[in-house]
Amino acid sequence: MLEHYKGDEDFVRKILDYVNQADKGKMILTKFFDPHQQSIVSRVIGNRLSVHSFGGFINAENKRMLICHDYYEIVPDDFHISVLKADYNDSFGKLKHSDVLGALMNLGIKREVIGDICESPLSFAICDENCDYIKTHLRKIKKSSVHFGEVNELIEIRNEFKNQVFYVSSLRLDKLISSLFRISRIKANEAINSGNVKKNYQIISNASDVCKDADILSLRHYGRVKIHVTDKVTRSGNILIEGKFYK
């Protein structure tokens, strides 16, 4: 099985261990998994066991997963997720996703216990066991004093995009990263080799990897973009693509 999951072998081994535990009747609750990891879980387990997921938000991308037999009745509280909403004065500017994530990481909070971060209203999902620690210790982000309180209602995440049009000579990953994020091919290749580029939430280390319509590309510290490959081609062979950049 592992040969089908190149680059994700350790993750698959962990899921197989979860499956063995769940087979014995145990309910397994994971940390937050991104969409790529969620897809692997579903493929590895198939119909062998029940798999449930929840991220604390409507339209959440990162979710905790429950692996168990189908005789368990699952409710949202079983996922042990808290959503913390920020109360702060934005006179120093609005806080962004990266500001919150950086502040949490500086507290020593691991990325796997943090779910989605919503900018409007500023809030994030967290594993229950980390909730009190964060409320006590996360009092300031950048120059803003912040108070976090738990919310009970479901918040809907609504992604906003900025659309741009590009002409590219090919759909190679390095060329797309260079064009979309306006960096040199050399820097694009360095980013790929350093593990700072993801396609559909998976780190890609092959610069010649060919992308396709609807792929989501991300470059660390730059952002992410969903591409639409059109059927328009110039006389010189350049392809017109549309980029939907996540704000």
From TrEMBL:
<dbReference type="Pfam" id="PF17774">
    <property type="entry name" value="YlmH_RBD"/>
</dbReference>
<keyword id="KW-0694">RNA-binding</keyword>
<feature type="domain" description="RNA-binding S4">
    <location>
        <begin position="171"/>
        <end position="228"/>
    </location>
</feature>
<dbReference type="GO" id="GO:0003723">
    <property type="term" value="F:RNA binding"/>
</dbReference>
<protein>
    <recommendedName>
        <fullName>RNA-binding S4 domain-containing protein</fullName>
    </recommendedName>
</protein>
<dbReference type="InterPro" id="IPR040591">
    <property type="entry name" value="RqcP2_RBD"/>
</dbReference>
<dbReference type="InterPro" id="IPR012677">
    <property type="entry name" value="Nucleotide-bd_a/b_plait_sf"/>
</dbReference>
<dbReference type="InterPro" id="IPR002942">
    <property type="entry name" value="S4_RNA-bd"/>
</dbReference>
